[in-house]
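Protein 1 of 2
SEQ + STRUCT:
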Amino acid sequence: MKAIGLYRYLPIENEQALQDVEIAKPSVAGYDLLVKVNAVSVNPVDTKVRAPKEKLETSPRVLGWDAAGTVEAIGEQVTDFSVGDEVFYAGDITRLGSNAEYQAVDSRIVGIKPKNLTFSEAAALPLTSITAWEALFERLGISSQSTGNLLIIGGAGGVGSIAIQLAKKLTNLTVIATASRPETITWCQTLGADKIVNHREGLVEQLDENSINYILCLNDTQGHWQAMTRLVAPQGLICSIVESDQPLDMEPLKSKSAGFIWEFMFTRSMYQTADIAKQGQLLNELSALVEQGLIKSTIQKQFSTINAENIRKAHTLIEQGNTIGKITVSNK
């Protein structure tokens, strides 16, 4: 089958960074589904995995961790899906990705595609939605009864665009998002943010110290760390999805009895946790919210035909660092 893969980890300007290749079509067993991929989206994780390094693959490595498509076959332990179902999912970073004609994926991390979305619109949702959902409702422990302030650092990106919507529709929190350009400010306001602050200026100067009950950091954890520890309220919580290349100083959180926690969307699939099926369940909940008109797809740019050229274009845009919402590549 056709796929987009890499043998070497190269700058995206090099055509060999991502190539059109032929690989074997997967077979499925156990909990797996075989999905005919109709659309994918590209995330920062794709570019981080592909980033230049001294490593050589003996067989093509296929990237891609967001997809929407149609179930073609099911493993013997699959109970919740049938051939012909339209699905969406973010996949498993330890397995071959979605940039291919077909993909084998664990059914427990798959949801039924919202009926009112195209495949491309649906492919924009899974990874960012799972990340935002887990960060808000599991890591930070926010519930529908939660009150106070939520600060989302990086509101216009893929995860921020979903986090704003989820927090506004499902909680009573005041949602403060950061954005620095007129177009990103407008985007965050359109999604429902109550207040916008500029992350390129001093956050402490724009907000009151000790006033933020929950902070979701989606950009430059190290760079924002001092501001976050000053802004977080006593007994508040900070969650980040962005790795730090330096140790984070936890001491400022001690007197506040405040906490810090990581969110990594691939944890459940990577470690085959006992609650792995929660990802499929939350995607189904998200699908229902989309069909009710409460949550919208964050697709902002689309390329037609899943091939190496278009995937490289999407990687290039992601690496420029000013993407709003999501970029998808589809065959329909």
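Protein 2 of 2
SEQ + STRUCT:
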Amino acid sequence: MARAVDLRGLRHTLDRLAAGVGMSPPVSGLNLLPAALRRAQIARRCLAPGEHGAAAFGDRPLTTLVAGATKLARELARDVLADLLTLPSAEREVLLKTLQVWFAEHGSAKDAAERLFVHPNTVRYRIRRIQELTKRDLADPRGAAELYMAIETQRLAGA
């Protein structure tokens, strides 16, 4: 229990930093340090651009998987987004940004629209277009998870 309290204090201190820091789960033994370092690096990669503070390994499980298996994630994301990725650059980037913001705003077209400076109906139209192109329904948990994995892969690839 004291160890958990110590980690909470450490995390609280790291959260106040003006930089991003990755944290692995605690380890005991020098032989475990390479794996702990790898996990801390993966956790750090999960932070959004400009985000600072501490990110613990596993805080964002799906993003952690994407960050830990980048080659495989890129391959799967290309498959999920295949038709969308063939669009002209400007249209593709607008749709990808809309999807990223839509997820960041927990599926709220209204909140996503405010962040994107467009009308909520524009967000809804773009989301329908994404669903048509990817043949995935965001109302279906599996479809939503696959699109989230793909958009997180895109985000991390750009970081």
